[in-house]
Amino acid sequence: MALLEVCGASWGSQVSCGTKSGRRQDPGHYSFSLRTPELAVPRGLQPPEFLCSLEADAANQVRIEMAHGTTTLAFKFQHGVIVAVDSRATAGNYISTLHVNKVIEINPYLLGTMSGCAADCQYWERLLAKECRLYRLRNGERITVSAASKLLSNMMCQYRGMGLSMGSMICGWDKKGPGLYYVDENGTRLSGTMFSTGSGNSYAYGVLDSGYRPDLGPQEAYALGRRAIVHATHRDSYSGGFVNMYHMKEDGWVKVESSDVSNLFHEYLKTQG
Amino acid sequence: MEARYDRAITVFSPDGHLFQVEYAQEAVKKGSTAVGIRGTDIVVLGVEKKSVAKLQDERTVRKICALDDHVCMAFAGLTADARIVVNRARMECQSHKLTVEDPVTVEYITRFIATLKQRYTQSNGRRPFGISALIVGFDDDGIPRLYQTDPSGTYHAWKANAIGRSAKTVREFLEKNYTEDTIATDSEAIKLAIRALLEVVQSGGKNIELAIIRRNQPLKMFSAKEIESQVVDIEKEKEEAEKKKSKKLI
């Protein structure tokens, strides 16, 4: 309760933890981790109201800032899917680290990117990885990208309005070919050819849209992804560190590179003249 | 001995039997026969239709049920129990399609039905489902499949099988006659199913219900006329075979 006092939030009725379902339910493997909620919701405390009272607002006096600092991008092309992310983690105006891994390697054929609240992304995507592994064990074949992204978006729908913050792209190669889905904390799930998320996404879209062709060669695609991240990190103060790039091929993903953005930016300056 | 251990489902007998489950299997043996055959490009389900009372509307008795476009099942045993199982399986097929964006595989829905049945053998206050089911269909990869479940919740894949009354006779017939030739074409597989049922069904084609699924095609129920024409063909072939035999003897 010390945390509640520090935040200045009003103490509602007694905070008591209790899971929702009274009936004895074994989740079974067909519920995909949805029938029993993963997190206990405190009874009597409405999460959306609780969060409103903490949000950055002049009247409320700033307590917690939910900043979503990052740039991640992914696009499909003729040789598969390119995934490129930055590696800076921020807490408000403070740079916590330049070495965050914003890509979770779910299995050799599935990747998930993270943007938004680091804790939310890591937790839910690791949960997704667990469900994907269980799916593989139970059904004898790897989960499809559409199914994996649907599981994640259903998890988000369950906690809609409770203050999760996660923008993720699920990329993979399955029996239907290369797959790319964008999933966010509202439960939005979109299939597409190109996505970019995070505070630096507008800068990345600018570079991607001007250079993208479906028939890019692998090296050209790496160069495009690299350039997009570098330019986004240059302009967006919440992105930076390294460009971590993955290439999703038919036989699995490979990590292409992890390059420092400042070095890359100086190289671009040189070639521009 | 038996009397003390067969009241509750959740009690093992000293020699390791769950008597309620075994009694459920007896209930299955009382049901009308169903036969399933897995061909190369076709799967066939045939059931023996119980003769209906004069005033009863025949169409309300359906023993072959579609679970989805590409999967169907036939059962033997308590019809009411089967209705519940079929309902749950149909819901699961759609729920799977919604969550995973892919139609169920035949193995998945069989596993679901079997898990459902097993759950009822391990909870108090409930009795096991008194049905065995034959589940047939094609998977996305185009391979035909036939599975059988029983009241204990086990399931196995089969090339051809029969359940219900006289299942043993029919299975022996299938063991003798299921060869690469007899399932080579669709019509041969259909004939094999009808011949197997004719072994045990009285009064011929009127009491047989037949359904087939061909690869990438929906379930097709045979009309009474189509079954009759198949039966007539089978009778002709039988006569010709007998004539040949008698010629040889002479």
From TrEMBL, chain A:
GO terms for biological process: fat cell differentiation; immune system process; proteolysis involved in protein catabolic process. It catalyses: Cleavage of peptide bonds with very broad specificity. Keywords: Cytoplasm, Differentiation, Hydrolase, Immunity, Nucleus, Protease, Proteasome, Threonine protease, Zymogen. GO terms for molecular function: threonine-type endopeptidase activity. The active site is at 70 (nucleophile). It is found in: Cytoplasm; Nucleus. Component of the proteasome, a multicatalytic proteinase complex which is characterized by its ability to cleave peptides with Arg, Phe, Tyr, Leu, and Glu adjacent to the leaving group at neutral or slightly basic pH. The proteasome has an ATP-dependent proteolytic activity. This is Proteasome subunit beta. It comes from Phascolarctos cinereus. The lineage of its organism: Eukaryota, Metazoa, Chordata, Craniata, Vertebrata. The gene is PSMB8.
From TrEMBL, chain B:
GO terms for cellular component: cytosol; nucleus; proteasome core complex, alpha-subunit complex; spermatoproteasome complex. Keywords: Cytoplasm, Nucleus, Proteasome. The keyword Nucleotidyltransferase does not apply. The keyword 4Fe-4S does not apply. It comes from the Eukaryota. Gene3D superfamilies: Glutamine Phosphoribosylpyrophosphate, subunit 1, domain 1 (3.60.20.10). Its main location: cytoplasm. It is found in: Cytoplasm; Nucleus. GO terms for biological process: meiotic cell cycle; proteasomal protein catabolic process; regulation of meiosis I; ubiquitin-dependent protein catabolic process. Residues 5-27 form the Proteasome alpha-type subunits domain. Belongs to the peptidase T1A family. The 26S proteasome consists of a 20S proteasome core and two 19S regulatory subunits. This is Proteasome subunit alpha type. It comes from Phascolarctos cinereus. The lineage of its organism: Eukaryota, Metazoa, Chordata, Craniata, Vertebrata.
